[in-house]
Design goal:
alpha+beta, 5 strands, 5-stranded antiparallel β-sheet
Length: 96
C-alpha cells in the first residue's frame, strides 16, 4: 500500500434531495467531502502533524478567494482507505 498524507476539505450543506417528493428540502446542517481538484491536497509526510495542519489551513485560506471550505481532515493512507489523524475548523484560523 502506497500511503500518502493528505487533507480532505469539507463543505457545509443544509439541503438534501428527497426522492419521494422529488424536491430539495432543508435539513439540519451536515458536512460532505469537498469535490474537485481543490477538495484534496497532498501533504508532505515528513512534516510533523502540526505543520501539516498549518499547511492545510494555509491552503484553505488561499482557496477562500474562490471557494470556502469550512472544515478539514488530515488523513494517512489512500483516497479509498485512510486513517483520520486530525480535524479542525478552517474558518477559526482565517481571523488571524
Amino acid at each position: 500500500m502506497n500511503s500518502k498524507y493528505f487533507v480532505q476539505f469539507k463543505e457545509l450543506r443544509s439541503y438534501k434531495w428527497n426522492n419521494a417528493a422529488n424536491k430539495l428540502e432543508r435539513v439540519a446542517p451536515y458536512y460532505i467531502d469537498a469535490c474537485g481538484s481543490d477538495g484534496v491536497f497532498i501533504l508532505d509526510g515528513r512534516n510533523a502533524l502540526e505543520t501539516m495542519e498549518n499547511d492545510a489551513i494555509e491552503r484553505a485560506h488561499k482557496l477562500s478567494k474562490v471557494k470556502s471550505y469550512d472544515r478539514y481532515e488530515i488523513r494517512k493512507g489512500t483516497f479509498s482507505e485512510s486513517e483520520l489523524l486530525a480535524e479542525g475548523d478552517t474558518l477559526l484560523h482565517f481571523a488571524r
